[in-house]
């Protein structure tokens, strides 16, 4: 939800303002399989539509599969299955079903998430934003690893947010068991998305699995469901009548452009681990391999999963 002010080099031909469908115009993804978590709402829905429109088979894991099936009913080539990222047993069950039905996975877009929610504990007492936004996707990637490597050339896109140089993982208390702050917890989970992609690419590159993190920009979606109108007015996102601040927000279709660009663009062949926005790689993003490795070890210890080597 937060914006990013770092500047990038190598501006893509698409750039700001283009939609996911426009990014994929002329692309033929027939025969390729994609998983888009949260693919029935907001950014995820826009990415699902664009990928399916280009011919991909898109699997949409959903905590509310009935709702997802209703929303996606008019999109051919989409398969819905049950998944709760905050529940490791659910992640394991989904991955097992997916591996049974699909031999390969070409694209994994780790998009689903929650933002600034009241203090909530899931699983073995994990903070909900860290669990849902990061640990669930970490576990999902681990359990789908055989299908990603079988694809020969797969990409994982981790949907993050804006990045500030002062952001850090709260190593001494990553679950916010002391002094919960909903925005600090959200920022930590989004930094984790960036660091996850960084280290995954380092491990996955030799297997043809490349990973990228994406800042989609300011977009009004159901992600803001935990915020009050007063909070959004105070942040300067909307006015008292609920009107968005002029020029601040892009549409979900525009925000999803960088998601599908990172997932498919030939401009990125031979690259990975990069932090992207506006269909370009940003300079000055987090590039701390030591922090990324440390997060990977923490995630492996918490989930009991470390299948990617």
What helical percentage do the residues reach? 25-40%
Helix count, DSSP H or I runs of 4 or more residues: 9
| Count of spatially separate domains | 1
Topology-level CATH name:
Rossmann fold
CATH-level-2 architecture: 3-Layer(aba) Sandwich
Computed over alpha carbons, the radius of gyration is: 18 Å
Overall structural class, as computed from helix and strand content, comes to alpha/beta
CATH superfamily: NAD(P)-binding Rossmann-like Domain
Strand percentage: 5-15%
What is the C-level CATH assignment? Alpha Beta
The beta-strand count equals 10
**What is the residue-mean pLDDT, rounded to a whole number?**
88
Task: Give structural notes.
This protein is of the alpha/beta class and 309 residues long. The chain has a single domain, classed as Rossmann fold. Helix content is 38%, strand content 13%. The protein is built from 9 helices and 10 strands. It has helices at residues 20-23, 42-53, 65-72, 88-101, 128-150, 182-204, 229-234, 252-264, 289-303; strands at residues 33-36, 57-62, 78-82, 107-110, 121-122, 126-127, 154-159, 209-214, 275-277, 280-281. The protein has an 8-stranded mixed beta sheet, sandwiched between helices. Strands 5-6 form a two-stranded antiparallel sheet. A hairpin with a 3-residue loop joins strand 5 and strand 6. Helix 4 (88-101) packs parallel to helix 5. The chain is globular and about 50 Å long. Residues 1-15 have low confidence and may be disordered.
């Amino acid at each position: 939800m937060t914006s990013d002010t770092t500047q990038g080099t190598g501006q893509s031909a698409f750039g700001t303002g283009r939609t996911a469908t426009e990014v994929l115009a002329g692309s033929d993804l027939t025969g390729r399989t994609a998983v888009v978590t949260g693919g029935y709402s907001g950014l995820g829905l826009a990415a699902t539509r664009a990928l399916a429109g280009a011919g991909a088979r898109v699997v949409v894991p959903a905590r509310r599969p009935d709702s997802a099936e209703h929303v996606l009913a008019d999109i051919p080539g989409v398969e819905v299955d049950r998944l709760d990222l905050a529940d490791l047993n659910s992640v394991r069950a989904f991955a097992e079903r997916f591996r049974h039905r699909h031999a390969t996975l070409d694209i994994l877009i780790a998009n689903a998430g929650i933002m600034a929610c009241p203090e909530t504990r899931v699983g073995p007492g994990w903070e909900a934003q860290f669990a849902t936004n990061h640990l669930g996707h970490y576990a999902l990637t681990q359990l789908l690893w055989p299908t990603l490597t079988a694809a020969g050339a797969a990409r994982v896109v981790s949907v993050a947010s804006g990045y500030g140089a002062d952001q850090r993982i709260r190593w001494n208390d990553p679950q916010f068991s002391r002094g919960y702050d909903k925005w600090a917890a959200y920022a930590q989970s989004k930094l984790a998305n960036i660091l996850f992609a960084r280290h995954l690419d380092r491990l996955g590159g030799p297997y043809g699995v490349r990973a990228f993190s994406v800042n989609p920009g300011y977009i009004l979606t159901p992600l803001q469901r935990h915020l009050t109108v007063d909070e959004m007015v105070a942040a300067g996102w909307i006015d008292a009548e609920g009107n968005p601040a002029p020029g601040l927000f892009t549409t979900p279709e525009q925000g999803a452009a960088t998601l599908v660009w990172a997932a498919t663009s030939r401009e990125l062949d031979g690259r990975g681990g990069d932090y992207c926005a506006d269909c370009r790689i940003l300079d000055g993003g987090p590039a701390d391999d030591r922090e990324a490795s440390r997060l990977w070890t923490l995630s492996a210890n918490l989930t009991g999963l470390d299948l990617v080597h």
